[in-house]
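Go through this chain for my students:
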Amino acid sequence: MKTLALVVMGGLAFIVLAGAFELRESRRARRRLLEHKERVLHPLVQHGLRRLRSSTSRRVLHYVGLFFGFLLVFYVLMFLGQGIVTLLSSWR
């Protein structure tokens, strides 16, 4: 049970870090877009700012997928590690 709690906490920490990186990159991209807004390359391109962020439900599904992906990868690696330990202990 302690292992499950540690894995869930690791998954949540992974999600928080992924969200922080996404927030930082979206702010950086928005700043770059605002800096280059004065340049007009073509008259048909003057539609204002592009949408940089997707809808809230899409982001929530993305983070839920990241969380379950983290848990799945950990689960597979745990079984792989147990198999390696079993294989190595049978060689003795």
